[in-house]
Known about the structure:
The structure holds 3 protein chains of 3 kinds. Chain B has helices spanning 5-10, 60-64, 75-80, 90-104, 146-158, 177-191, 211-219, 232-238, 246-261, 280-289, 306-313, 317-336, 344-354, 387-394, 409-413, 416-424, 446-453, 464-482, 485-493, and strands spanning 27-28, 31-35, 42-47, 52-56, 84-85, 114-118, 163-169, 197-203, 223-227, 266-269, 294-295, 342-343, 374-377, 382-384, 403-404. By secondary structure, chain B is α/β, with parallel strands linked by helices. The relative contact order of chain B is 0.11. In chain C, 31% of the residues lie in helices and 0% in strands. Chain C contains 6 helices and no strands. Chain C is elongated, with a radius of gyration of 36 Å. At the B-C interface, strand 1, helix 4, strand 7, strand 8 and strand 10 of B face helix 1 of C.
Amino acid sequence: xxxxxxxxxxxxxxxxxxxxxxxxxxxxxxxxxxxxxxxxxxxxxxxxxxxxxxxxxxxxxxxxxxxxxxxxxxxxxxxxxxxxxxxxxxxxxxxxxxxxxxxxxxxxxxxxxxxxxxxxxxxxxxxxxxxxxxxxxxxxxxxxxxxxxxxxxxxxxxxxxxxxxxxxxxxxxxxxxxxxxxxxxxxxxxxxxxxxxxxxxxxxxxxxxxxxxxxxxxxxxxxxxxxxxxxxxxxxxxxxxxxxxxxxxxxxxxxxxxxxxxxxxxxxxxxxxxxxxxxxxxxxxxxxxxxxxxxxxxxxxxxxxxxxxxxxxxxxxxxxxxxxxxxxxxxxxxxxxxxxxxxxxxxxxxxxxxxxxxxxxxxxxxxxxxxxxxxxxxxxxxxxxxxxxxxxxx
Amino acid sequence: xxxxxxxxxxxxxxxxxxxxxxxxxxxxxxxxxxxxxxxxxxxxxxxxxxxxxxxxxxxxxxxxxxxxxxxxxxxxxxxxxxxxxxxxxxxxxxxxxxxxxxxxxxxxxxxxxxxxxxxxxxxxxxxxxxxxxxxxxxxxxxxxxxxxxxxxxxxxxxxxxxxxxxxxxxxxxxxxxxxxxxxxxxxxxxxxxxxxxxxxxxxxxxxxxxxxxxxxxxxxxxxxxxxxxxxxxxxxxxxxxxxxxxxxxxxxxxxxxxxxxxxxxxxxxxxxxxxxxxxxxxxxxxxxxxxxxxxxxxxxxxxxxxxxxxxxxxxxxxxxxxxxxxxxxxxxxxxxxxxxxxxxxxxxxxxxxxxxxxxxxxxxxxxxxxxxxxxxxxxxxxxxxxxxxxxxxxxxxxxxxxxxxxxxxxxxxxxxxxxxxxxxxxxxxxxxxxxxxxxxxxxxxxxxxxxxxxxxxxxxxxxxxxxxxxxxxxxxxxxxxxxxxxxxxxxxxxxxxxx
Amino acid sequence: xxxxxxxxxxxxxxxxxxxxxxxxxxxxxxxxxxxxxxxxxxxxxxxxxxxxxxxxxxxxxxxxxxxxxxxxxxxxxxxxxxxxxxxxxxxxxxxxxxxxxxxxxxxxxxxxxxxxxxxxxxxxxxxxxxxxxxxxxxxxxxxxxxxxxxxxxxxxxxxxxxxxxxxxxxxxxxxxxxxxxxxxxxxxxxxxxxxxxxxxxxx
Lengths: 394, 499, 203
């Protein structure tokens, strides 16, 4: 539950571009350009900042303020020092009062945000779109990519709708693949624009390195189009999926579970197994109470216990069909033992929390927990700690 | 859509569901139908590629006339199952259907991938229903010669398929084990430098499986299939050995084979005779007791020498179907009590029903699988398109012989007999099959028709093949449409999964 | 009904049986006026039929972590009549097995991130003035770097207690001698290659 930003003080003036934080030992050995690196000083050591300035570092990160005017910029007195750690990529803004973490080495889920624009308007959108010219983001993201550890296994691409960037998205993904050849790129997209094969061709050569995570909310257009609030979206998305799959791209199908999608969960599973058996993965996702979801709570909220039996059927159906399947964002106490092998700790560490009831739960460490944004009116009545006798019986 | 997204959201103007449900006309896609007997108010409809749902019988005519009400509760399922679609959805729906169709029929590109070596006709059993013209255990001149065996291996490596199953049969193949060994070694030697993946199996009584033989079978990862007709009274009745102890010896042999090869590699099947029809539960129980989780309830074959004894042990297909229905109901009861037992043929049919996978089962395909999916190398060097065709020759009708093992593969595939089978073996254009709701899941069997009538195309609906499959599909769909959750899950679990 | 059936067969069977499909005549579009046939315009889109293979494509890594626990392979039923590949969607190479079968589900994260929206006034700088990978440094920088790295390591090992300044002064030399003694090296007090090697520093 570590935040992605903190406040701090700055002595001197840091550059505005993204910076890599490395503890001093790693900073001195890095192959990155030192002008992109801020060295984190080990506490209790006396370090000659002049030497670091001569070496060309962009600055240092210290616990406390420097004595006098330092020879290079110093970021100090962070509100939450744990937020900025070695390996992280940060951006310092507004004279230091705002430190944003753009990449966190310790996190299992790093994402790059490419645009606020979207061509759908999902009822439960957690990142409500804004119509704004944000083409500049790609350039900044390429800078960030240069500072990401090549050992990271997955990086997400998200928005808005990334394909609205067209060839610039392809440019970013190619850049990523070049800098991070061992990293799987996972793009969240509604896939609608891939109904045009010309767009699919822009991503030729990235097959195997990119997975396209595409939401499909039903097996019929009436339901899907309503949830995404766009006429024709279902057919466009399917056409896009087929065009991508026809070019051997990897597809992940995502299904958000709420009141509008719960009626046809079983039929959806059969639809996927018959029409999209090439799917690399299917994810059934509990609802995140952010953005539009809050505004539309009356349309969306349902206690997960009401659909968990249908979910059980659907997950087993797809599993038998040989499609790798997961359940995201639902706690283990609601899922019961036979479904645990499908449950993932999917809630990003920086937005995850546990409830007081979880203190006594024996599987707390395996459980993905809850969204920090979920108040009591977004919590199932069936949440309860799992004890040994539960595990034996289920 | 994006341009006005923000202002609409600020005004809380999310459009209601009615703005997105298509009340307009719909387009029909090709489908077939069958009125259900068990639920006479309902009709099963199946799409071109085997997706299925049911509608009330009195809705069928309005459906076809384009008058299905926009708010009909059946509309969404019909749309999801590619029975109807909208104009806007036509292109992608047809593309989906085409892709499913392509997947179902992709076995065509492989060519023969199941190859049977009949290494000997000699056998120590004299089963009453045997289709094979068996010879006594010690008769000479009924084994495959070395020259023919090696030529057959040459043919094998001329085949285009990458994955091939080689099955040894007889008589009793273990009576000619040296020939089996020779063939396996030769194939393994040549496989090393080819891209093919060849797996071995054997249909055997297992009575002659010595430890050395079992060791060899294990080394080459054999699967073995044996005959177990049920409890001793049933098994021994029609499978006589000199000491009348076939059942006991079979059980002992199964145990030894399981120890040596692993339980997963040992399977068994039944042959159901007139006597056995009275005891479905006992037969299932005997398999469960023997530690099997799969049983193949196989009806009598009308081929070969079995026709001689048909009078004593035969029965009309409807009697088999009644027996099967009882056995299946019993098996479902057992599964509900957590005993895992599946019926192997139902599993094949359910695979065809629930998936669009290219069928691995060569005997139920359209275009038919004899010759095009499987080849038989006989002990005398003859090459046949299927085991049934070989048996036909044993009873005097060699019209389906494709050639001999020294004939190059391409010539064998161009044999007039094979062409005859393929022309008659497309169910989609056979009268009787072409409008059947079960067509996507079924197959054509011109070899059986030739055996019965002398011609490759006969009256489908009165054939044993059709009666059997119609009956089995009717039974399975009765359960699926009734939709009892535990039963559907059990039946679904019988489809082999590909994790 | 006939129109869509014929057109469909022409397109679909054309994938598999070109000779038979070619013979099929297609009824004129005028017949499309019947209520259940497709609209005249829409049939032209059928030309893009283009069925796709149903096999799963290969992947670098990543989604194996979703594979979950794999149960034992199902009982192979009676194998007679089965061809080599028991019903598959095609010849994609098999998925690589998961690296482990965890009792706890592996960690993963893919829900959309809550990005802090950047305020519109902040015009980002263009790319950093220097490329991400370092150009070869000047000789003095190199020496400074190596010396600072050595001081850090000596301090970590407890031989050095001074400032990390990259200057090999008396304190640093003394620490080097202590380290060299502990490593059975010549106690030169100098950052020679052998000493650097033992400190784990590649220049």
